[in-house]
Amino acid sequence: MKIVGGMRIHNTVLTAATEVAKKSDVVRGKVGAVCFTNTGNILAFAHNKVVYGQTHKKQWTIHAEIALLAKMVRVRAASRYGIKNLNILVVRHKPEIDGLAIAKPCENCRHYLNLTGIKVYYSDNNGNIKFLPKGKK
Fold first, then answer.
1. What whole-number distance in Å separates Cα of residue 75 and Cα of residue 49?
2. pTM
3. In contact, 122 and 130? CB cutoff 8 Å
């Protein structure tokens, strides 16, 4: 269990996010995102997906964070648990080291995540989990 910004992130959440990231078909980064409650219950998960292209330079993707938000709507996560009880963890799996790499959400994803009011965490280059303050780049 990791404690980040006062939040306990259970190993099951971290493992689930990593396993989801490994399923990504994106060449330049295998990113996974998990929505979980303050008690560690996983409600939804998603990974980034190629929507067009097969090569590194010509892949258009749906980011894991956006795919996760869509799934959260379908399972009615906010209405069932309340925004204050929800968290999102975003990780990037780096196959070369079989570990985590930087998965800080891009500016576009940060914008949509900030609109939700849900607390967001991400993996950094050292495999640590960091809290993403609202509105920060």
1. 20
2. 0.91
3. yes
Locate 45 and state its tokens.
């998960």
Per the DSSP assignment, residues forming a β-bridge with 50 are 61
Q: What is the separation, in whole angstroms, between the first and last Cα of the chain?
A: 26
The DSSP symbol for 57 reads: G
Instruction: Name the token pair of 64.
Output: 């894991």
The one-letter code for the residue type at 23 is K
- Provide the β-strand partners of residue 60: 52
How crowded is residue 137: how many other Cβ atoms within 10 Å of its Cβ? 9
- The amino acid occupying position 74 is R
The domains of the chain, with CATH numbers, are 2-132 (3.40.140.10)
Q: What is the dihedral of CA 29, 98, 131, 15, to 10 degrees?
A: 110
Instruction: State pLDDT tens for residues 28-77.
Output: 789 999 999 999 999 999 999 988 866 666 778 899 999 999 999 999 98
Sign for the CA dihedral angle at 9, 102, 71, 110 comes to positive
